[in-house]
From TrEMBL:
Pfam families attached to this UniProt entry: EamA
Protein's UniProt name: EamA domain-containing protein
UniProt GO cellular component terms: membrane
Keyword Transmembrane: yes
Lineage top rank: taxon: Bacteria
Keyword annotations of the record: Membrane, Transmembrane, Transmembrane helix
Keyword check for Transmembrane: yes
Origin species: Candidatus Kuenenbacteria bacterium CG1_02_38_13
Transmembrane portions of the chain: 6-25, 37-57, 63-84, 91-112, 118-138, 165-183, 195-213, 234-254, 260-282, 294-315
Length: 319
């Protein structure tokens, strides 16, 4: 079960990276394309250290799959960062993660001929309920006030709105899910270090493409420094160090274990993100402040519990 410890540590580090990204996208780095470029470039530095250890040419077929896996991950990052600019991290992370779990299992069924058990069907239902519950907007009053107001009143019954961020979470989850499936195929046919290097190349190549547009190049060269947040660059490096170690750890776990099981355990990341957001909101609101009330917290906790229970059923079935 060595992979399990690696996975849990990786999701803890990823949670730190997600919350740090949110604080930077809120003020310091406003263009998601630029932020994706920074992250991809910094991550590609790891490949420089891998080359001396020996990179194997995998053949054109595996090369294209590796590049596609990395490219899909880069596109998923962009949509994630775009969502973090507009949405609470404690809401967006479970939303994306729940959808990724669904996409990964659907892909496994379609391309790996896996059959769904009763527990897996129940798990999908729970994940879908949790994902949409966390996506619903009950205005400023939260779920409980909405229920008290609406139950028993047939007149002017207004349904809660699905948050527009779900439209961003869907493509983010789709590309992350595609990346996980392709990455597993890469590690099924290539040594870990070599496969990791080729997928990181795909991340960098796709992140460079938006720089063909003048506006993105201008934003990259003229990134404004936030005078009220002079430590932003150190937070960026800290966050990316956590994210980098987490990414490598997850990639290694995928290479030695079931990609579905590794992805399913992402539920632990939601709890870490939620706790980190609570700490920052109440102790360092200048860095990150999310709209938190008792009723909103209850809504988020119930939604995460649905997702976590579904993920637990999946993990229990695969164990």
């Amino acid at each position: 079960m060595f992979w399990l410890h690696i996975t849990l540590i990786a999701y803890f580090l990823n949670a730190i990276a997600v919350v740090t990204d949110k604080t930077l996208l809120r003020r310091a780095i406003k263009n998601p394309f630029v932020y994706t470029f920074y992250v991809a470039t910094l991550g590609s530095i790891l490949v420089v250290f891998i080359f001396p250890l020996g990179i194997i040419w995998p053949g054109w077929s595996q090369f294209l799959i590796s590049i596609s896996a990395g490219g899909a991950f880069s596109i998923g990052l962009f949509f994630l960062y775009l969502g973090l600019k507009k949405e609470d991290a404690s809401r967006l992370a479970p939303m994306v993660g729940g959808l990724v779990s669904i996409f990964v299992f659907i892909s496994a069924i379609l391309f790996l001929d896996e059959e769904l058990s009763g527990n897996q069907i129940l798990a999908f239902i729970l994940i879908i309920i949790g994902t949409f519950l966390i996506a619903l907007d009950f205005q400023e009053h939260g779920l409980w006030s909405w229920l008290k107001k609406k139950i028993g009143t047939a007149k002017n019954l207004a349904l809660p709105k699905i948050r527009k961020t779900l439209l961003i979470a869907l493509p983010a989850a789709l590309f992350f899910g595609l990346s996980y499936i392709l990455t597993k195929d890469v590690y099924n046919h290539q040594p870990f270090l070599s496969g990791f290097a080729w997928t990181r190349l795909g991340v960098l190549v796709v992140a460079l493409l938006p720089m063909l547009f003048a506006k993105n190049r201008y934003d990259l060269r003229h990134q404004k420094k936030d005078t009220n947040d002079s430590k932003a660059k150190y937070r960026f490096l800290f966050g990316q160090a956590c994210g980098g170690i987490g990414a490598v750890s997850i990639q290694y776990a995928i290479s030695i274990a079931s990609v579905s099981l590794v992805q399913a355990l992402q539920g632990t990341q939601y709890a870490f993100v939620f706790l980190a957001v609570l700490l920052l909101t109440y102790n360092h609101p200048k860095l990150l402040r999310e709209k938190i009330s008792v009723q909103i917290m209850i809504q988020k906790i119930i939604a995460v519990m649905f997702i976590a229970l579904g993920i637990w059923l999946i993990a229990d079935n695969l164990a």
